[in-house]
Amino acid sequence: MYNKQELMDLFRERALKFGDFTLASGKKAKYYLDGKQVTLHARGLSLVSQGFLDLLDPSIDAVGGMSIGADPIVAGILSAAASKQSDLLGFLVRKESKGHGTNKFVEGPVQPGMKVAIVEDVVTTGGSSLLAIERVQEFGCEVKQVLSIIDRMEGGANRFRELGFDFQSLLTIEDFGITPPEPS
Fold first, then answer.
1. pTM for the whole structure
2. Which letter, b or e, does each residue of 93-120 get, where b requires 16 or more Cβ atoms within 10 Å of its Cβ?
3. Which of 150, 156, 157 is nearest to 172 (CA)?
4. Residue 72: which residues within 8 A CB-CB, separation 6 or more?
5. Cβ–Cβ contacts within 10 Å for residue 75, how many?
6. pLDDT digits over 81-104, tens only?
7. Using CA atoms, how far apart are residues 166 and 126, in angstroms rounded to an integer?
8. Which H or E element spans position 116?
9. Contacts (Cβ under 8 Å, ≥6 apart) of 48
């Protein structure tokens, strides 16, 4: 069962760090959310997976995202879905093709035409998820939804919505008492 307060407590305890950081987006920040400290923790992954299942559009055939961040999330969602007798599928998107075999960017039992959701631990500008979306669309799947554990509220959610994707997050940075920066 998803418990928002417990997930927030785990992020505060395990993943929220203050200092000077450079994010994947290239932006500078005074705080960092190391999502893997929660998604690679048994109770944390369980909370995230149940929360995402609650948000998941019922028309979705598969969930996936950029490897390595999405890997535990996808596995957790699939495990939680199986306990509800769901046939939900998972996939992973490579940053680079493996250079041998089929040279695929999208790995897993998905097929062109399937409706999919992209999952992410933390969204800032949305760049990582947008790359995953591009690769999944090139593969032939229809991206219906983007789900994030935490929205840093720095433009990513708006970019997804502008592009026509349903975006939802389990938490926002405001849940931690942090005010997002003013849009530039």
1. 0.94
2. bbeeeeeeeeeebbeeebeeebebbbbb
3. 150
4. 36, 39, 40, 45
5. 15
6. 999 999 999 999 998 766 655 668
7. 13
8. strand 115-123
9. 7, 38, 39, 73, 76, 149, 170
| Token pair 């959310």 in the structure block, residue | 33
Q: How many residues does the chain have?
A: 184
Question: Which residues lie closer than 8 Å to 120 by C-beta, 6 or more apart?
Answer: 65, 66, 69, 70, 73, 128, 129, 146, 147, 148, 149
Q: What is the pLDDT of residues 147-157, one digit of tens each?
A: 999 999 999 99
What's the count of helices (H) and strands (E) in the chain, helices before strands? 6, 8
User: Beta 106-107 vs 28-33: how paired, if at all?
Assistant: unpaired
Please tell me whether residue 178 adopts helix, strand or coil conformation. coil
Task: State the amino acid at position 81 in one-letter form.
Answer: A
